[in-house]
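Repro:
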Amino acid sequence: MSLLIKRAEGVEVAAARDLSNKSWLATYTPLIGEDETRAIIESRHSADVFKEQAARVQDRFLVAVEDDKVVGHCYAFQKDGMYVDRLHVDPAMKGRGIGKSLLSHLEAQLFADTRCWLDVLQGNEDAMKFYEHVGYKKIDQTDACGGLSGIPAVIFEKIIH
């Protein structure tokens, strides 16, 4: 069956949350520890937060669906351009172009010359390679990844044409 990229609805929001949390635990536990990872999940990835984000029509809460299963998720909002807050793909589905499809769908919705940007936790080499592969450039670094105090990050951006 083919991959469908769309705005999340209903149970897809909960499935995107489950996928994001699973991805966070797998990716960030080795980098920042399990306690810190779980604290971030509890505060920033609660069911209520995801429902509220999905309801914001000005934000982009996208899912990639294959065979009626959410296999990827992207959430972005306006902040000095379009800030990509989350992009996660089911670990069993990585390497199939799902993340690239989600970003392409997001970027197609933006006006020309829009800044699309994000930050990646230092040490997350796979994510950094992915973003460079799809045309994002490293422009800076910070000690506060996505507002997470004390967690250093690399900032990437792409100007949409």
